[in-house]
C-alpha cells in the first residue's frame, strides 16, 4: 500500500494537505515553538481539551500581556491545518472568554472570525458541548458568549456571508441559510446574584453592554464579534 502525503500542483511544486513547510515556518516564528511541536505531534487525545482559565480570571481587568500568556502564538497556530483539525469549539470559546476578561477586544474579534470560518458540523454553535463549568461567573460568561455569537453569526449570514467562505450575493441570501441556534445547556445557566462587570476598558471608548450578558447579570461589550 502506498500512502501519498503530497500531490503535484500545476506549477510543478509539491503540496501537502498539512502544509508542512508553511507550518514549520510559522513554528519558527512562535515564542514557544518547541512546546507547540510536542503538543501538535502528541496524538492522545486527538482533540485538544480547553485550558482552564487562571483562578479569578474574571477580576483580571485590562491587561496587554496576559492574553499572550494564556494562549501564546495563537494567531500562528490557527493558520496550521494540524492545529485546526485538532482544535475544538469549546477551546475556542474559552479563549474568547479569556480575551473578554482581559479586555482584549481585537483578539476576541480574531477568535470569533476563526470560529465562524470553521464550517465543520461539529463547529455549529448548536453542537458546542456543555463545559460543565463549576465556576458560576465563568459559566455565565461562556453561556452569554454563545448567545451573543448566535445573534452575530445569524446577522452575518443574513448579509450573505457564509461560513464556507463562499458568500451569497443573491436576492435570497436573507433566507438561504440554516440559522444558528444555541445548544440546550446554555438556557440552563442561571444569572449571577451579583453583577459581574467585564465592560470597563480605559484604552477604548465603551460600547453598549450586550443584552445576552445583561440577562445573566454580566456587563460586557462584545461588538468585535460582529467584525466581517
From TrEMBL:
Top-level taxonomy: Eukaryota, Fungi, Dikarya, Ascomycota, Pezizomycotina
Keywords (A to Z) from UniProt: DNA-binding
GO molecular function (one): DNA binding
DNA-binding as UniProt keyword: yes
Protein name, per record: DNA-binding protein
Superkingdom: Eukaryota
Amino acid at each position: 500500500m502506498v500512502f501519498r502525503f503530497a500531490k503535484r500542483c500545476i506549477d510543478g511544486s509539491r503540496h501537502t494537505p498539512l502544509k508542512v513547510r508553511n507550518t514549520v515556518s510559522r513554528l519558527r516564528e512562535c515564542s514557544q515553538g518547541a512546546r507547540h511541536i510536542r503538543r501538535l505531534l502528541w496524538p492522545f487525545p486527538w482533540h485538544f481539551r480547553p485550558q482552564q482559565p487562571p483562578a479569578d480570571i474574571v477580576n483580571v481587568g485590562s491587561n496587554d500581556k496576559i492574553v499572550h500568556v494564556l494562549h501564546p502564538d495563537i494567531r500562528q497556530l490557527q493558520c496550521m491545518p494540524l492545529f485546526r483539525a485538532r482544535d475544538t469549539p469549546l477551546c475556542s470559546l474559552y479563549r474568547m472568554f479569556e480575551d473578554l476578561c482581559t479586555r482584549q477586544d481585537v483578539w476576541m474579534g480574531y477568535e470569533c472570525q476563526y470560529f465562524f470560518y470553521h464550517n465543520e458540523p461539529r463547529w455549529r454553535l448548536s453542537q458546542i458541548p456543555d463545559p460543565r463549568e463549576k465556576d458560576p461567573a465563568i459559566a455565565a460568561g461562556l453561556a452569554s458568549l454563545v448567545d451573543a455569537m448566535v445573534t452575530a453569526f445569524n446577522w452575518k449570514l443574513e448579509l450573505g456571508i457564509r461560513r464556507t467562505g463562499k458568500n451569497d450575493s443573491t436576492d435570497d441570501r436573507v433566507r438561504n441559510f440554516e440559522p444558528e441556534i444555541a445548544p440546550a445547556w446554555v438556557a440552563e445557566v442561571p444569572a449571577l446574584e451579583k453583577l459581574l462587570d467585564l465592560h470597563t476598558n480605559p484604552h477604548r471608548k465603551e460600547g453598549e453592554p450586550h443584552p445576552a450578558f445583561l440577562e445573566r447579570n454580566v456587563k460586557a461589550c462584545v461588538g468585535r464579534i460582529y467584525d466581517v
